[in-house]
Amino acid sequence: MVDKMDVAAVLDLIRPSLMADGGDVTLVDVAEDGTVSVELTGACKGCPLSELTLANGIERILKERVPGVTRVVPAEEAAEE
């Protein structure tokens, strides 16, 4: 099982990069299957590149640094599943 505190700590490392562009990220949930749900806020919310930010930035870094993370999804998508 993925430790939510480990995920939060890594998001804290990513946060300054997002804030530099006027955005931020909030951890919503970590599921038992390793799916991390996040909410992009500020300039990141609704940005056309937000999917790339999730996949190539946040997800890649979380998978590298937190064992067991399988994917990162927007909170809205996780709620639909």
Fold blueprint:
Elements: H1 4-20, E1 23-30, E2 35-42, H2 50-65, E3 71-74, H3 75-80
Parallel strand pairs: 2-3
Antiparallel strand pairs: 1-2
Structure description:
The chain is of the alpha+beta class. The protein contains 3 helices and 3 strands, in the order H-E-E-H-E-H. The protein has helices at residues 4-20, 50-65, 75-80; strands spanning 23-30, 35-42, 71-74. The chain has a 3-stranded mixed β-sheet. Helix 1 (4-20) crosses helix 2 (50-65). It is globular, with a radius of gyration of 12 Å. The two termini are 20 Å apart. The model has no long low-confidence stretch (mean pLDDT 91).
Structure in a nutshell:
The chain is of the alpha+beta class and 81 residues long. Helices cover 48% and strands 25% of the residues. Helix 1 (4-20) crosses helix 2.
How would you sum up the global shape?
Answer: globular
Number of helices: 3
List the strand order in the largest sheet.
Answer: 1-2-3
Per DSSP E runs of 2 or more residues, the count of β-strands stands at 3
Helix-strand makeup class: alpha+beta
